[in-house]
Design brief:
With 367 residues, the protein is an all-alpha fold. Helix content is 74%, strand content 0%. The chain has 16 helices and no strands.
């Protein structure tokens, strides 16, 4: 007898994303520190923790994609979910382009359009994983096997990707200025898709088993650091080597496992605490949080930004206060914008449903 599929929202994934957002803001705010403090042991320790942020985002994206597709396929609504996921990936790429515009003169130098940062990587990864996950959603056991195999292949090919030149280098390695190329980061999205497919088919107990398996697999990779280093030509070990990727996903899965346990202990009908609401807001609005904190930190508005006023000038105390202020302002903007976006969506839905020719009815069904 198969375990019951997971139907309710996995709050632990929202919490993982929310915690990742907080560390992301803290990481980017390091530009406020004085240069000598950015070379300290404390900063190096913080950067080691911050190295888990991108894997957490990518894993969460793959997890949600596969979980919702498997669940939708079981309910006969895979086509609707496919359209929503495609639109979501397009939105991520749109915001990624907007952030690049904030940083670079895109109109004078269009090459910056293809500079991959974390949002580009998330959007492209979703576009790559989506057709496979949608095609295999009705067969979750096959999907999880394919996703796991593609994750491991991605990680094992990543050191070789450093030698790629030409147009493919723009998306596969850092030689053209990409911050988060597809290698090795796409692999974390495939791992998330594996865990999401298991959860969609086997429920929370299956998710726990999948996380334990990934933790063990990551530990094996960590312990095999030397042979994996020697297996490849000279490469950036702490960026592309499968051993270091295994260490990262091991810690991400350990954190998620703890959050799953915390969610399981909470009563489903209990009112969320303020801390939970705070973290969940960032978890469910992580893309907005990314955009707003980047704008506050770097984008000059009437000559003001956190970096302009306090960049390279802060000690640890001032850095802590400013980081707290940056997080608070980002949270406030996320909370303020969400009702406005909901109102726009309701207005668009109302107009579409009243259009003649049957278009409104089709639109309503697609929602």
């Amino acid at each position: 007898m198969n375990p019951a599929p997971l139907q309710e929202r996995v709050r632990a994934i929202d919490w993982l994303r929310g915690v990742a957002v907080l560390f992301m803001v803290q990481c980017h705010a390091l530009v406020l520190l004085r240069p000598e403090l950015r070379k300290s042991d404390t900063t190096r320790f913080l950067l080691e923790l911050d190295g888990l942020v991108a894997p957490a985002f990518l894993f969460s994206a793959g997890f949600a994609l596969a979980l919702l597709l498997v669940r939708s396929a079981a309910g006969g609504k895979r086509g609707q979910r496919l359209g929503r996921n495609l639109k979501r990936a397009a939105q991520v790429l749109g915001v990624a382009t907007l952030v690049n515009w904030m940083w670079f003169p895109l109109f004078r130098e269009p090459r910056w359009l293809v500079r991959l940062d974390i949002l580009h990587c998330v959007g492209l990864s979703l576009m790559i994983v989506l057709p496979v996950a949608a095609g295999l959603a009705s067969r979750p056991r096959v999907l999880r096997g394919v996703a796991l195999a593609l994750a491991l292949i991605t990680f094992f090919l990543s050191p070789l990707g450093e030698a790629v030149t030409g147009p493919w280098a723009y998306v596969l390695n850092k030689s053209t200025g990409a911050v988060f190329p597809l290698l090795p980061w796409l692999g974390f999205t495939w791992l998330g898709a594996y865990a999401g497919a298991v959860a969609g088919e086997q429920g929370r107990a299956g998710l726990v088993r999948a996380l334990l398996f990934l933790i063990a697999l990551g530990l094996v990779g960590k312990l095999a650091a030397e042979p994996l280093r020697d297996l490849y030509p000279e490469h950036r070990f702490f960026v592309t080597n499968p051993s270091h990727a295994g260490t990262r996903w091991m810690w991400v899965c350990l954190v998620l496992l703890g959050l799953v346990g915390l969610e399981w202990r909470m009563a489903s009908d209990a009112a969320p605490s303020r801390v939970r609401r705070f973290v969940e807001t960032f978890g469910t609005a992580s893309m907005s949080a990314y955009f707003f904190h980047e704008a506050l930190l770097y984008f000059h508005v009437f000559g003001f930004s956190f970096e302009v006023v306090w960049g390279n000038r802060s000690g640890w105390g001032q850095y802590a206060l400013l980081t707290g202020a940056l997080i608070g302002l980002t949270y406030g903007l996320c909370v303020a914008v969400d009702p406005a976006l909901s109102a726009v969506r309701r207005g668009v839905r109302f107009l579409a449903e009243t259009l003649p020719g049957g278009f409104g009815e089709k639109f309503a069904r697609s929602r």
